Amino acid sequence: MHSYANKFAIVDSPSLPPISNPLGGESSGFSAGRSIAIPDREIKKTVSLHDLPEELTIKIIRLLQLRDIARLQQVSTHLHGVIKNDHALAKVWYQRFSLPHQYQLEAALPAEDTGQLCRWLRPFTKDKASVESLIKRRKATYFPALFYFTKTGLMSRCKTFNVEKKATITHHNCVRSANFSADSRYVVTASDDKKAKIYGQNYNGSWVKKAIIAHDSAIISATFSADSHHLVTVSLDNTSKIYGQEAGGRWVHKHTISHNLMINLAIFSPDGHHLVTASDDHTAKIISQKDDGSWEDKLTLSHNDWVTFVTFSADSRHLVTTSFDNTAKIFCQKTYGLWEEEFTISHDDWIDLASFGADGRHVVTVGNDTKVKILERNEDGAWLEKLIISHDDIVNSATFSFDGHHLVTASSDHTAKIYGEKTAGSWEKTVIIPHDDSIASADFSADGRHVMTLGEDNKVKIHSQQANGSWEENVTISHDDFINSATFSADGRSVVTVSNDGTAIIYGLKTDGSWQKEATISHDSWVNSASFSPDGRHLVTASKDRTAKIYGQELDGSWVEKAIISHNDSIDSATFSSDGHHVMTISDNNKVQINRLRMSH
Predict the structure, then answer these.
(1) pLDDT per position as a tens digit, 266-280
(2) DSSP 10
(3) Residues 6 or more apart in contact with residue 376 via CB below 8 angstroms
(4) 61: confidence class by pLDDT, cuts 50, 70, 90
């Protein structure tokens, strides 16, 4: 009898071909797409994985691609048992996601709440015994990989979904934003009607109003901290308010941050212990949480003009501010808790954006002077300017790859440039990507092997890194009208583009490294957005035609329509929750709708 891990497993697309010569009958194997040959003269008998100690066999199997592991499972009873017992398929599949995404998935997983875990799976299977068997493993270190792998397989097997409308959140004016908490248990909306509303999910699956946050002017955003325990609002009344979750799920006011002019941004640090605001009053303010749970103003950071942007490093120890005074400033929290300025970056015009590399050792700034600067922090803590990248027009984005060794810029001069970090911290240009019009954005896939550029020439281009380190154009995706967005899935194996031509197009990465069209989703009007589920196997579009369409990837790799959500007005956006089975839509009639997906009976 097969275990639940095999019963619900997913593999790569397309369907696995038959294997005529199983491993163990040959003197060769496969490792991450590379062949390993063992000369006959060096062995006295045929080498087989069966002959190796199980620990070594497992190490070799984990180096293989997902498809190859699935092949091994099909052709050998012995290896089937080794792979099943090690949960190798689940582990290798989970490793496709970047570490930040894995942390997000693990933070959302209610590993200690067996009832909640059941409620995540039961909508997609009637097999209670398998669900209970899986949940018994919740203490294991590999449980997040196994749980999400199993849940993804269950959802992929659902031919269609039933959509249950769980709540409608109504405002009296435009809804500026609506966000799920990382644990998927709460939603917060922000509206021009001067209110933010918090809704929470009860244990029976219903959604109810938990709190209303009031301001004296329009609320332009409301976002949760990464741990889902706090949220912050930003209002045109020049204040931000921090609310916190108390025992029993009650949300209460914790702190109010005031500025003398408009607040442009308020964000939490990744660890949730700090918050920083950026304001037109020439200041940014750091607010920190004390040991007793209260929040206090820690430091006011000054510029000589509007502070336009601010962000934290991944370890929450550094932050960088940008300003219309042509400078960006890097601040560091020292061991004794105080924040100190470490470095000032200067441009010849205002600075639009800045971001840290994933390792926190690099900072990139984007100036209105058409220049991008890369800085690096040495072992002694000093920041040094390593590279200036010049374009002939405004730079619209500059993004590090996850490993921090590559950077891609996108410019209105019709070019994107990829730079790579070489030895001794030097950076070299590796390729220039041309478009026929301004390039709005450029981004890396999760593994850093692919770059996607979005041009205003109605084209998206994907370039892929070759074995020798060079970058070559892989595919060009074309639309008949303006492209609103282009997005990689979290595992980097799918891309979706959405356009005013009424279509969203899905491309998928094949085993030979090529990108091929897998589906075209058609609407009767503009497609405003498209978002992948956290596992990358489902997608929801939002259209001006008043519908949102949910598509899912089948086990053979094809994408099929699984559900349609309807509103009485244009749907501006649609997103999945972290648990993957809630979809939230925002429509032009000032309503936010929370929907739950279930398998069709």
Answers:
(1) 999 999 999 999 999
(2) -
(3) 361, 362, 383, 384, 386, 425
(4) low
> Are the C-beta atoms of residues 169 and 594 closer than 8 Å to each other?
yes
Over 21-89, what HEC string results? CCCCCCCEEEECCEEEECCHHHCCCCCCHHHCCHHHHHHHHCCCCHHHHHHHHHHCHHHHHHHHHHCHH
**Structure tokens of 428?**
């070299």
> Residue 223 pLDDT more than 80?
yes
Collapsing DSSP to helix, strand or coil, 138 comes out as coil
d(CA 68, CA 535): 20
Residue 134 DSSP SS3: helix
Chain segment 119-135, per-residue pLDDT in tens: 899 899 989 999 999 99
What the block records as the tokens of 292 is 């007793």
Is 179:220 a contact under the CB 8 Å cutoff? no
Q: What angle do CA 321, 324, 330 make, to 5 degrees?
A: 20
Q: In the numeric block, which tokens belong to residue 282?
A: 């020439």
Task: Give the pLDDT score at 48.
Answer: 61
Per 3-state DSSP, the chain is made up of helix, strand and coil in percentages (nearest 5) of 15, 45, 35
Q: pTM here?
A: 0.86
Q: Is the peptide bond before 123 cis (omega within 30 degrees of 0)?
A: no
* In the chain, domain spans: 4-11+23-157
Q: Considering only CA atoms, which of 216, 266, 261, 217 is closest in space to residue 240?
A: 266
- Please give the Cα distance from 544 to 409 (Å, whole number): 31
The answer to whether 209 and 198 have CB atoms below 8 angstroms apart is yes
Within 10 angstroms of residue 347's Cβ, the number of other Cβ atoms is 22
Cα atoms in the Cβ-side hemisphere of radius 13 Å centred on 361? 12
Closest residue by Cα to residue 586 from 56, 222, 150: 222
User: In which element (H, E) is residue 105 found?
Assistant: helix 99-108
| Higher pLDDT pick, 314 / 22 | 314
Q: In whole angstroms, give the CA distance from residue 542 to residue 545.
A: 8
d(CA 388, CA 323) in angstroms, rounded, equals: 19
DSSP strand pairing (571-576 vs 582-587): antiparallel
Predicted local confidence at residue 406, as pLDDT = 95
Q: From 292, 216, 277, 287, select the one nearest 255 (Cα to Cα).
A: 287
Residue 73: strand pairing partners: none
What is residue 29's predicted lDDT score, i.e. its pLDDT?
A: 33
Distances (CA, A) of 373 to 355, 370, 410: 11, 10, 14
Q: What is the mean pLDDT of the chain?
A: 88
* Model pLDDT, residue 5: 47
State pLDDT tens for residues 436-461: 999 999 999 999 999 999 999 999 99
- The pLDDT value given to residue 205: 82
Rounded distance, CA 585 to CA 592, Å?
A: 6
Show the tokens assigned to 580. 């993957």
Residue of 256, 191, 177 lying closest to 223 (CA atoms): 177
Longest dimension (CA), the chain: 83
Does residue 272 contact residue 230 with C-beta atoms inside 8 Å?
yes
